[in-house]
Amino acid sequence: MVHAEIHINRRGINSIEAPSQVEISAGESLVLDIVNHGPPIHLTLSSDNSAPFTEFFHENLYLGERQEYRIPVYENAFEGSFELAVITGYGMHRGTIRVQVNRFVKKKEPVPEAPPVEIPSPEPPRSFPVLIVLLLLAAGIVYGAWLVERVDIFNYAAFAALSSAVLAAWLSRR
Question: CA 40, CA 81: separation in Å to the nearest integer?
Fold first, then answer.
C-alpha cells in the first residue's frame, strides 16, 4: 500500500494540498489519507484516464475531519500513469496528483528452512493386559452359564464383565 496525504482547508477555505506525484506498483493500493482542517466539506475524486490501471473513476465524498479512501491498482496493469483530480468548492478548486504505475515485480520470498526432524523416543513396551483378559474370560464363562441355565443374573453378570473389559482397555490406552 502506498499512502498519499491530502490536506483540505489548511491554507484557506476549499484549499487543496496534495502531492504532485505518487509512485505505485501494479497490484498495490493507493490509500488517500484525506485530512480536513476546517468545517465539513463535499469533495470529489475523479480520474478520466485511469481505466487501464484501476476500476476507480469518480467518487463524491462528504469529508468530516479525516477519511481514508483506497484505490486498488490492477495486478496486471502496464507501466504508465493517470491523473487523479481532487476537487472542492463545487469545481472552483482543483488539485491534481499524477499516479505513476510501475510494473509489478514479484519479489522472491526466502525459502524457510525446514525445522529439524524430531525423532520420537520409543515408547516403553506395554505390559500384557492381564486384567482385560481375565474380565473377558469371566464374561465368556458367565455367558456360557446363562446359555445352559437360562438364569437372567448370569446374563447381567456377563454384560457387566464385558463392559468392564472394554472400559479397562480404553483406560489402559491413555
Answer: 31
Q: Cβ(36)–Cβ(8) under 8 Å?
A: yes
Cell numbers placing 136: 473377558
For helices 130-149 and 152-172, give the axis angle rounded to 10 degrees. Answer: 160
Q: Which helix (H) or strand (E) holds 143?
A: helix 130-149
Cβ–Cβ under 8 Å, residues 83 and 98: yes
User: DSSP letter string over 13-34?
Assistant: TT-EE--SEEEEETT-EEEEEE
pTM, two decimal places: 0.57
SS3 141: helix
Q: pLDDT tens digit string along 116-155?
A: 777 777 766 667 688 889 999 999 999 999 999 999 999 9
